[in-house]
Amino acid sequence: MALIVKKFGGSSVATPEKIRAVVQRVLKEKKTEDKIVIVVSAMGDTTDELVTLAKRLTSKTYGREMDMLLATGEQVSIALMAMAFQAAGQPAISFTGGQAGITTSNAFNKGRILDLQPQRVHQALEAGNIVIVAGFQGMTADGDITTLGRGGSDTTAVAIAGAIHADVCEIFTDVDGIYTSDPRVVPEARKMDTITYGEMLEMAKLGAGVMQPRAVEMGSRFNVPIHVRSTFSEAKGTMIQEEYAMKIKQYLIRGVAQDNNVAKITVLGIPNRPGFAYKIFSELADKNVDVDMIVQSVRIAKEGVTDITFTIARTELSAAQEVLHHIRAEMNVEDILVDDGMAKVSLVGAGMAGHPGIAAGMFGILSDNGINIEIISTSEISISCLIAEESVNKAVQAIHAHFFAEE
Amino acid sequence: MALIVKKFGGSSVATPEKIRAVVQRVLKEKKTEDKIVIVVSAMGDTTDELVTLAKRLTSKTYGREMDMLLATGEQVSIALMAMAFQAAGQPAISFTGGQAGITTSNAFNKGRILDLQPQRVHQALEAGNIVIVAGFQGMTADGDITTLGRGGSDTTAVAIAGAIHADVCEIFTDVDGIYTSDPRVVPEARKMDTITYGEMLEMAKLGAGVMQPRAVEMGSRFNVPIHVRSTFSEAKGTMIQEEYAMKIKQYLIRGVAQDNNVAKITVLGIPNRPGFAYKIFSELADKNVDVDMIVQSVRIAKEGVTDITFTIARTELSAAQEVLHHIRAEMNVEDILVDDGMAKVSLVGAGMAGHPGIAAGMFGILSDNGINIEIISTSEISISCLIAEESVNKAVQAIHAHFFAEE
Question: Chain A partners of B65 at a C-beta cutoff of 8 Å?
C-alpha cells in the first residue's frame, strides 16, 4: 500500500472530458490498497477569466474579495472531479483548502500556510475515498478565504503530502522532468533522474518554472519525495529528494537557470544613517513585495550618502511603485531609478562553494560574450548574475555549453 | 437610521455592468446612517451552466459535490459586488453563506437553515461596511457546503433579516409586486399593496412564483416585513407583513394562484393495515420529496384494500420513481399510476374558512366550465383543486373573473 498525493494543473483539467481522462489514468495506476489524495488547479484559463471579469468592474485589486472570487475556480474543478470518480464507481470526496485543514496567513493573494490539520482528509481516506483537494487556496484563522499566489497548487500538494506523511508527491506537468537548463533555450539540455531539494530550490528560485520555490522548500522541510512527471506519459520523471537518498553520482554542477521576471530599482542618495534601508524594505514587505538581490554602495565622492540597488519580480513592480512614491515624497533621497529590462542567469549545483574556479569560469564566459554583470549573488549551491534581459538566452547557452561540455 | 436587507436575483447581477447598476441604485437610495446587507444570487444563467458542466461528466446527481459546485456561482457574484462597492468608494465585504453564520441541515441540494449566528455580519456593519452575502447556500455543522434548493436566495435574505432584526427585507424582482393572479394568465389581475404572511404563504405554496414558501414562512416566524418590489423602478411594491400592521380594508379573497409543477401518483390496492401509508411517505421524505395533497379511499367492493392518491412537485418525479420501484417490488400493491399532466388552482384569502359559500362558488365555476376536480384540499385561508393542466388557465381566468368582479 502506498499513500500518494498527485497534483494536476489547470491544463490537465481544462474540460469535463480531460477531467475524465485524469480519473481514468489515476484509476489505472492505482493499486487496490493505495490511498490517494489529488490536488487540482482551476480548469484551463478559469483564473484568468475571473480576473478579467473583475477588471470590468475595477482596475484596482481588492485582496480579500479577489481571493473570494479566484477560489471558486478550484472549487469547480474539485466538485467535478469528485463526481467523475463517483460516476466511475470510485468513492470520492472533494475538500476546499479550508475543509482540508489548511490555515494560512491573512496576506490575501499571497497567503502562507501556517498550519495544516488533515483530520478530515485522513477520515475520508480511511472510509475508502479518493480525496480531492482544491489547490492554491486556504483559510485564515478568521475563516476568510485566501489564495497562495502563483503556483500555489504545488505548495498545497506538497504541504498535504507532508502533513499526511505521504510516500510521494507526484507533480504532473507538461514537461517530463527537470532539465539542466530550459530546453527551449538550450536544445542540448538533459533531463535529470534525481535532484536534491537544495538544488531544485535554487533552480526554482532562479527561474526554472517547473516548480514553485515555496513548494520545494515545503518538501525539504517535511522530507516529502517529489516526483515531477508528465501528464501525457507514464515514464519516470525527475525525483526531488534528500541527498542521501540519491544513488547516482553527484554532479558538481546541476543546471543553468534563467529568470526574466526581474526589475531593478536603484534608490540614489540615501542619507547613510541606520534605519533608512530598513524603512524601504519593511514598507515593501508590508505590500508583500519580495526583494531578491541587494547591493548597497557608499559613495566615495559624497560622504554620508549611499545608493541601494535591489531587484524584485517585474510582476510586482506596480505594488512596489506605491512604496517608491511614498519614499520619494517623504524621505530625503536624490532619485529613484527603475529598470524593468533585466534578467538573472544562475549556475546551480551542490558543493560549488568549495570550488571558486566555477564562479571565475562563469564570469569569464559572460565577459567573453560581452555581457555586463550588474549584480552578483551567491549561495552555498548557486551563483547568480544580473544581466540585461536581451542577453540572457545567449548567456544561458554559453554557460551551459561550457560547463556541460567539460563534464 | 434603518437596517435593511436587500435581495437581488440572478438577472439583476448577470454581468459586471449590471452589478455596477445595482451598486449605483443601492448607493442612491441609501441614507447616510442606513446599514445595508445585500443578498445576491449567481450571475444570470451561471447555475444552469454549472449543472450542464456536471452533466457532461455524469447523468446522476451527487448531492454533496453538486452543492460544492453550485455554491461557486454565488461566491463569484458576492466577490464582484463587493469590489464594485469598493471601487465606488463604499467599504464593503462579502461573506459566503457559512461565513455569514448560516448553519443548515445536511440535506444536500435542499438544505434547511437550522441556525444563524450573524456575529460577523454585525461586526462588518458596525465597521461601516455594506455586507454582501451569498444567497442559496449555507454550511453544515461539519463544515460542508450546502445549497438551499430553488429560490433559496429569498430564504437567505429573510433569515438574515430576521437574525439581525432588520427593519425590512426588500426582495427585488422582475415584477413590481404581488398580483391577485398571474398577469400573464389573467390580464385584469391587480397589484396588492399589502398581504399577510399567511395569505402570501398560501399564494406561494399554491404556485405564485414571486416568492418561495419557505422564505415567507421564515418572515412570518421572525416577523420580518418583506417588501416585494421591482429591480427596474423605485415604485413601492407589495408589503408582506402581519395582519395588525395592515392599515387597509381586509379583503376576504386575496388572489387566485396556479401551480403547474404537479404530478399525481396513485397507489392501488394497498393492504389496509396500519403502517403501509406511513412507509410510503417516510421513504419519500428520506429522498426529500415533499407530498402535497393526499386522498385515501377505502374500496367498498373489496374489503381490506385501499387506494392512496397524492401529489408531488413534477420536478421531483425522478427521485420519487426510485421509491415507487421499491414499493412495487417489496410491498404487495396492485399497481402504481403516475400522471404528470396535472395542475392545481387555488383561491386564497384570510377568513375564507367562515364562508362556506366561497368553496361552493369555486366548484360551481369549475363545473360550469366543464373542468373535472380530482382532489380538493382546504386550509384556514385557501381552497385548492387538482385539475388537468390543459384546463388550468381557463380555470384561473374564470375564478378570477367571478370573485373579483363581484367585489
Answer: 79-80, 82-83, 86, 93-94
- Closest chain B residue to A132 measured between Cα atoms? B65
Rounded Cα distance between A108 and A66, Å, is: 8
C-alpha cell at B389: 393542466
Contacts of A108 (CB under 8 A, 6+ apart): A63, A64, A66, A67, A144, A146, A147
B264-319: pLDDT as tens digits: 998 888 876 667 777 888 888 888 888 888 877 666 656 677 788 889 999 889 88
Domain B257-406 sits in CATH 3.30.2130.10: yes
Taking a C-beta distance cutoff of 8 angstroms, is the pair B100, B133 a contact?
Answer: yes
DSSP state of B191: B
Q: Rounded to an integer, what is the distance from CA B317 to the centroid of its chain?
A: 18
Q: Determine the length of chain B.
A: 407
Q: Which three-class secondary structure state does DSSP give residue B345?
A: strand
Looking at this predicted complex, what is its ipTM?
A: 0.73
Rounded distance between C-alpha atoms, residue A283 and residue A336, angstroms: 15
In B161-290, beta strands by DSSP E: 168-173, 194-196, 226-230, 238-241, 255-271
What is the CATH topology of the domain spanning B3-248?
Carbamate kinase (3.40.1160)
3-state secondary structure of B282: helix
Q: Which candidate, B205, B98, B97, places its Cα nearest to that of B153?
A: B97
* Cα–Cα distance, B211 to B261 (Å, whole number): 15
Q: Is the pTM of this model over 0.80?
A: no
Distance, in angstroms, between B167 CA and closest chain A CA?
28
The string of DSSP codes covering A134-166 is: ETTEEE-TTS-EEE--TTHHHHHHHHHHHHTT-
Decide if B29 contacts B234 (C-beta within 8 A): yes
**Alpha-carbon gap: B118 to the closest alpha carbon of chain A (Å):** 14
Chain A interface test: which of B18, B38, B80 (most A C-beta within 10 Å): B80
Q: How does pLDDT run across A24-77, given as a tens digit for each residue?
A: 999 999 998 999 999 999 999 999 999 999 999 988 878 999 999 999 999 999
| Residue A335 CB-half CA count within 13 A | 2
Q: Domain ranges in chain B?
A: 3-248, 257-406
Per-residue pLDDT, B384: 87
Task: Walk across the sheet containing A92-95 and list its strands.
Answer: A92-95, A130-134, A35-40, A3-8, A168-173, A226-230, A238-241, A194-196
- Evaluate whether A347 touches A366 at the Cβ level (below 8 Å): no
Of A16, A57, A75, the CB nearest to B72: A75
Q: Do A68 and B16 touch (CB under 8 A)?
A: no
pLDDT class of A384 with cuts at 50, 70, 90? confident
Residues B225 and B240: their CA atoms lie apart, in Å, by 6
Spatial CB neighbours of B183, under 8 Å, sequence gap ≥ 6: B175, B189
B90 close to B130: Cβ distance less than 8 angstroms: yes
- Max Cα-Cα span within chain A: 77
> Is the CB of A60 less than 8 angstroms away from the CB of B87?
yes
